[in-house]
Design a protein that fits this description.
The protein has about 230 residues and is α/β, with parallel strands linked by helices. It is about 35% helix and about 25% strand. The protein is built from 7 helices and 12 strands. Strands 1, 4, 5, 6, 7, 10, 11 and 12 form an 8-stranded mixed β-sheet that branches. The chain has a two-stranded antiparallel sheet with strand order 2-3. Helix 5 packs across helix 6. The longest helix has 14 residues.
Length: about 230
């Protein structure tokens, strides 16, 4: 069984205002380096595809080469959206059975979570991690409350998301044909008619989006790692 991990790392992070989120440093190391290192450490993953920012592709390659990978790692340019970038990654994965898609902007993903998603994907064909919201969830229109949603029927979706390779490729091709734009790969797969399983996510699997996220991630990492200056 062949498993490929696609690391979506082409996002510019306009809300963060620091250019490529994948190349933002946290305690001396980029988010991209941290995520790729994790996937390289997993016996379940056979190779990695990094979909990097086209304008900084050499920087992304340098981050990968610095890890001295003992597994194949392909670095290719992404597109103008996450969906286009994942599709670019799918075009170079080669023959495989399962694909894991993970955002480089989630640098604290754990091996346990990756394995949990992969196991569910192998069982069902498609799986994502999710967390129940802690706060009340409301639907609004025009700044006014429309309805309250049942929290037991809502999750906050995370990555990595895992899929049978042919299923994910087909979902992306169908989305391109119909013009469907999804928030994530799971939405495209669900739209193709295949059910998507949900496994328990992790509170620390935080996505780097804003300056507050950056400060929180930096603090969490510094709690568990020596600073770069102390190494």
């Amino acid at each position: 069984m062949q498993v490929v991990a696609i690391v979506a790392a082409a996002g510019t992070g306009t809300r963060l205002g620091k250019g490529s989120k994948a190349l933002v440093q946290l305690n001396g190391r980029t988010t991209l380096s941290r995520v790729v290192e994790l996937f390289l450490s997993l016996d379940e993953v056979d190779r990695v595809v990094v979909v990097g920012p086209p304008s900084r592709l050499e920087s992304a390659r340098g981050e990968v080469e610095a890890l001295r990978p003992r597994k194949p790692v392909i670095v290719c340019p992404g597109g103008d959206s996450r969906q286009h970038s994942v599709r670019a990654g799918l075009s170079v994965i080669g023959t495989c059975d399962y694909v894991l898609v993970h955002d480089a902007a989630r640098p604290l993903v754990s091996a346990a979570l990756v394995r949990r998603v992969l196991a569910a994907a192998q069982e069902t064909g498609a799986a994502i991690p999710g967390l129940p919201p802690r706060d009340a969830v409301k639907r609004v229109e025009g700044g006014r409350l429309v309805e309250s949603l049942d929290r037991s029927q809502v999750v906050l979706a995370q990555t990595p998301q895992g899929f049978a390779a042919q299923l994910l490729v087909r979902a992306h091709l169908e989305a391109a044909d119909t013009g469907l734009v999804g928030d994530d790969d799971a939405q495209l797969v669900a739209a193709s008619g295949h059910p998507v399983a949900v496994v328990e996510g992790e509170p620390l699997n935080i996505k780097l989006t804003t300056q507050d996220d950056l400060e929180l991630l930096e603090a969490l990492i510094r709690e568990h790692e020596p600073t770069a200056a102390a190494k």
